[in-house]
Specification:
CATH architecture of the largest domain: Beta Barrel
Radius of gyration: 33 Å
Oligomer: single chain
CATH class of the largest domain: Mainly Beta
Strand content: 25-35%
Length: 461
């Protein structure tokens, strides 16, 4: 008999030498452990005795969970414990998925209308494969067991006031939660449980519908930065246009709001604020992001006065950040767009190695061109896409550069170089001519000279 500590996936024996017992499984020609514990070989059978019991969730189990991810039509809750079962939950069963219709017996515009992140709840397991699905409407004891106030963090109490069934004893926050019978501890001992306060089947009143009409952003709550109650007024940072009163957007004075483009993906709002804050007082500063939180490469800055905005444009338009040249202009002036200094002729460089940086590309061109700027294309995550745009001096001969370097190798890859259509001489492609004019340009010139427009012959069936 032999004994040793093993972890899941550890090979404990070969098939044929011993038989697979409890806590093991056969994969190809090997016997591997399925849990953390002590391996034993006794009488030709290998087993792994779990150091801590593993819980395998089954349909019908009652679980306690905490909400983590909320979307419009569904969400996920982290399963904390399975009632009546001791042990650790399998990693594949840690998250319970639910649909908005399984929260309460009321019409909900979005999941956040009945639950919030960090709320603790009880639910019933309805499916275990391919994912664990949970239901909060199955029984009256299912639903929210504990909730905290989003603005101040105090514990919410059950209190019906029109459309709302929970309130904060410390501030004026009121909201709706899909409550379980024993919400707040002790409710299940009363003749009437807290689930009765869910107002099942009732239509929403004017107050709730007015709030829902503002959309998800209108229902957002500011987290209190402090909890002092000494009479001083609390102030919260607000982006321009939020909470302006009567639903109106407070517009900045003409010339005060700037658009900042060409930002590197790693520059965030704080860095943008630090950069522009040197030129005056700002009322708004933000780098725009996508749904995943990644920068979209541009942002907006609003100054309190136009001279400050003009000073920022003069100092930062065309400024280089991490090798990229940013553009700063008046966001409200669509016709007059400012731009950085001339970059020169624009060349396309394709089939680049993914580890090639600006220094490598510059050295590749060598004495064939005078490099003004190298812009390596990246995805939203900042990973190179395998091509770049190189701006060379206007005095260079783009055709000669292409002839000399197109098809040559860089780190084992055959590089493609061509003149970009947005810079230098335009190449003639399908629909154009040797002068580089497209078919649309030729048609417009013909109409100006009074030549009749040629029509395509109709197809006859």
């Amino acid at each position: 008999m032999t004994t040793s500590l093993v972890t899941p996936g550890t090979k404990v024996a070969n098939v044929g030498d011993v038989e697979a017992g409890e806590g093991t499984m056969v994969i190809d020609d090997s016997i591997v452990s399925t849990t953390v514990g002590q391996m034993n070989i006794n009488d030709g059978v290998v087993t792994v005795q779990a150091g801590k019991e593993i819980v395998d969730i089954a349909i019908g189990d009652t679980i306690i969970c905490q909400f983590e991810k909320l979307q419009e039509e569904g969400g996920e809750a982290r399963i904390l414990v399975v009632e009546g079962k001791k042990g650790s939950i399998l990693p594949s069963q840690l998250q319970g998925h639910f649909h908005v219709t399984r929260l309460a017996d009321r019409f909900l515009h979005t999941v956040a209308d009945a639950v919030r992140r960090r709320d603790v709840a009880r639910a019933v397991v309805t499916e275990v494969t391919p994912v664990v699905r949970i239901d909060f409407r199955e029984r009256d004891d299912c639903g929210i067991l504990h909730a905290i106030c989003p603005p101040c963090g105090d514990t919410l109490v059950a209190e019906v006031n029109g459309d709302w069934n929970v309130a904060c004893p410390s501030c004026k926050y009121q909201s709706y939660r899909a409550l379980a019978d024993n919400f707040g501890a002790g409710w299940a001992e009363l003749e009437q449980g807290a689930s009765e306060l869910n107002l099942s089947g009732k239509r929403w009143g004017r107050e709730a519908e007015a709030l829902f009409a503002h959309g998800p952003s209108g229902r957002a709550t500011y987290i209190a930065a402090d909890v002092r109650e000494d009479g001083r007024e609390r102030t919260y940072f607000r982006f321009e246009g939020q909470g302006g009163g009567q639903g109106r957007r407070q517009k900045a004075a003409p010339g005060c709001r700037l658009f900042v483009g060409g930002l590197p993906r790693e520059v965030d709002t704080e860095q943008l604020r630090e950069m522009f804050g040197k030129h005056g007082d700002m009322t708004d500063c933000i780098v725009m992001t996508d749904d995943s939180g990644a920068s979209r490469g541009f942002g907006f800055v609003t100054f309190t006065a136009k001279p400050q905005a003009e000073a920022a444009i003069s100092a930062l338009d065309g400024h280089k950040i991490n090798g990229r040249r940013i553009g700063v202009r008046d966001a409200d002036n669509k016709e007059k767009k400012t731009s950085g200094p001339p970059k020169g002729l624009k060349l396309y460089v394709g089939n680049l190695p993914f580890d090639a940086d600006e220094k490598v590309v510059t050295e590749f061109f060598g004495d064939n061109a005078t490099i003004n700027e190298v812009a390596i294309a990246t995805d939203k995550g900042g990973k190179p896409k395998g091509f770049a745009f190189v701006f060379v001096s206007e005095k260079d001969n783009a055709e000669e550069i292409v002839k000399a370097l197109n098809g040559t190798e860089l780190k084992g890859r055959r590089i493609k170089i061509d003149i970009s259509q947005s810079g230098g001489k335009k190449r003639s492609k399908g629909g154009g001519n040797k002068d580089g004019k497209s078919s649309r340009e030729l048609r417009a010139m013909a109409e100006e000279e009074g030549q009749p427009k040629k029509r395509r012959p109709r197809r006859r069936d």
